Amino acid sequence: MYVVSSILLFAIALIGQQAAQALPAESNRHLHKIFRYPTGTSTRSGSYIVELHAEHDARAVKAASAKARSILKRSVGQFSIGHHYDSVLKGFAVHANEDLDPEHLARLPGVRRVWPVRRHNIVDSRPVAHTSIYSGQHRHTGVERVMRELGLDGRGVKIGIVDSGVDYTHPELGGCWKTPGCPWQNGKDFIGDLHVEGDANPIIKPNPTPMDCYGHGTHVAGIIAARGPRVTGIAPNATLGMYRVIDCQNGSSDDIILAGIEAAYKDGNDIISLSIGQQGWSEDPVSVLCENIVKRGVVVVVSASNSGYSGLFTSASPAVANGVISVASIDNWEYTGTQIEVDGKLGNQTITASVPSNDKLRFFFEKPVPLVLGVTAKGSANGCSAFDRSFKDKVVVIGSGKCTVNEKAINAQAAGAIGVVLVIPEVQALSAGKTNSTVRIPVIAVDTSHQQYLIDSVTKGPATIAAPKRELVIVEDPAGGQVSGLSSNGPTPELAIGPVVSAPGANIYSTYLVANGGYDTKSGTSMAAPYITGVAALLKQAHPDYTPAQIRSTLATTAKPLRDPKTHLNIHPYQSGSGLVDAYAAITTRAQLFPSSVILNNTDIGTLTSIPNVHIPGSVRWARRTITIQNSDARRPVRVSLTHSAADSLTAWHANGTLAPPVRVWPAESSIIGDKNKLPQVFSVDSQISSSIGPRQHRKIDVIIVAPYGLKESERWFYGGFLNFELTWGGSGDDVQTYVVPYAGFNGDFSKLDVLAEPTSGFPQIVDTDLKTHDDLTTFGAAANNTLTLEYRLDLPSRLVAVTLLDRRNTTVGYLPDGYIEYATRNMQDEGSKLNEVEISGTVYTDHKLSKKIQVPSGLYRAQIKALRPFGDVNKASDYQTWVSQIFSIA
């Protein structure tokens, strides 16, 4: 783990391989305290979080903020001191209406770090293949058995939910707020309904209660603790708190989120549930706070995020924080929907469509009604403009378009339609989205397998549609039980396994805003995290003395690894953690295993013939690790046996070295596994492994894990698998419990990998204002009307990236704008931020804070990128990957 304070030591010798290339030494010893986020990170101008050293108490925090107020009055125009943090994270927030020089804050006595305030969006649902069930997933996770056989319901456990608020008027969520017997006994609104995060100065005017106006928090709350009859939460009798930090448009920022998390901690919650995240490192402020809270004895559960289609290294912060339980999403096994019957020239078909966009507007047509294409006279069928024809008493089929579902429905409704069926191929979802109270007709959607039939039926017409069943139908999903494609993948930037465990997250039917029908289906790790929160509450109820580390380890080691249906190997731990949670196994466990995962970020190379029980000739990569097994049974000894299950190998790259989102899997199918040397192997070096462990005793078991040596290291594979421990108590073959410890690592030397994109990908490159490249830039010139831009992409996270300008003597003259990034994340390939961009205009900065600006003389220059490789030393020049551009002119 790196520390921010190392930055100052590196600033002097950052760039050059020779002393002549070093930048001028920083004169201000406080600059290293100021944190810079990667280019493209949305931050609020003039707003900062000031972290003080840990010894500050509440009075000292108040005094420090008063000192800041006094100093800022002399140097800044309008400003305000925001939230104070005086429990786990010590500090305060500062907001200015103009750009505030953070150096003023860094100079304050007792300041440890100064962070810019990031803007946030909640880890919201994304559409997937189907919608969800009521609570049938409980059968697959052991929750139903816990309720039936053990009678656990979360009673006595306090859960704090940091989210968008809750519609506590919902009858299945208690219909109350802080009254006797009400589940909601804690919570607070930190943001209010007037807040719009995109505004320059968002209005923060909290309401008296954390009433939800976005819906996400209400959905999450139902997963944790809904009381039925339509939605059965996992811990319906837990004591709940809601800390509203998300506005009505799904916006927030670090300072508000930190305040909500701290309040949840100070209210004495046993478990804090977070479905919030942004790409980052464990050094981010929200991650730091969560890590500290775990150290204070509170369980923190976090969604992994929804960037799985971008490949590896996509788990977000604070899911990457040390000690938290990060959660992956599993597709549900069943889904609910509306049954429709379509009849026309192509024949009759019965289709299960989505639940309606508003639960109050049931899609019910007992007798067939005309079904037509919602098209304008100009041929537009996207529903985004007013229709110029009547659809009176007809159901219309509407396709893709850059407008909301609500707008489509309003236009159809205005034309007299009595219902809408959506066919939106690019979404590939059986989800109609949500409509508001202005829409008075039902809206449903059909999945991709039926869309073409529906379109052909209405274009070849005439066609009719009927929906004779008033109630939703439950349909089995053959794809259920697999990791959701949207679920973010590990590893963390430090190569740790994350997510920790998996839970149902795709197609989850739960409570929603009463005004919007009261129920909704959502998908994402936002739904999986509260599921694990509820299971953790049951485990805490059964074992009140368990520490956060014990709860985390128990949930992980008793989970069930998931099987890849194509390869018949296990799903890699980077995608699923230990596998699907098993609540019953966790609660009835009689053993503890530590660590709960094995990280192979360093391996030895050599022969293994001298190690007992291991006979692999030649030189291979291998690691020796120790697992401690604690027999918790007070009366009976336990015998241990060890087996091993290999997982798919993963790579983030194609064979030619270019990035491959989503991840590439080996083997592609079971028939090509062939040589076992392409799979990792595990050997026990403990000859006494099968001997008994006495009651309340423990044993350390050493294993040798051998990396695949039949896979090409040049293709950069990540391998993994599971150590399977079978524990048998009292000699009875029937008294057996199974445990898993996942392992994962890199098939090669991870520290030697380049972090910049392969040159064959075309990056880095220098382009003009029209995004065109030029073979010769020596006469092109970065003049006022001829600005150049350096574009580069990170395929791996990097602890430090510096982009500088070199003169003709190869001497560094300064950092380019946005040319200094700490804790940089890899660039996503299916989202908005695809590249890092640095402007070349003759302006450079002589300090890494990018505050001391100069203009270089006209002439010829080069741009240089230095990106720290994994696990690199910021002070060691050889640990950087260096790229130098072609020569260009600055006029």
From TrEMBL:
Signal peptide: 1-22
UniProt family annotation: Belongs to the peptidase S8 family.
Domain called Peptidase S8/S53: residue spans: 154-565
Name of this chain's protein: Subtilisin-like protein
Domain Inhibitor I9: 47-116
GO MF: serine-type endopeptidase activity
Alphabetical keyword list: Cell wall, Hydrolase, Protease, Secreted, Serine protease, Signal
PROSITE patterns (UniProt xref): SUBTILASE, SUBTILASE_ASP, SUBTILASE_HIS, SUBTILASE_SER
GO cellular component, one term: extracellular space
InterPro entries: PA_dom_sf, PA_domain, Peptidase_S8/S53_dom, Peptidase_S8/S53_dom_sf, Peptidase_S8_Asp-AS, Peptidase_S8_His-AS, Peptidase_S8_Ser-AS, Peptidase_S8_subtilisin-like
Segments forming domain PA: 370-450
Alphabetical GO biological process terms: proteolysis
Superkingdom of source: Eukaryota
UniProt-annotated catalytic positions: 163 (charge relay system), 216 (charge relay system), 526 (charge relay system)
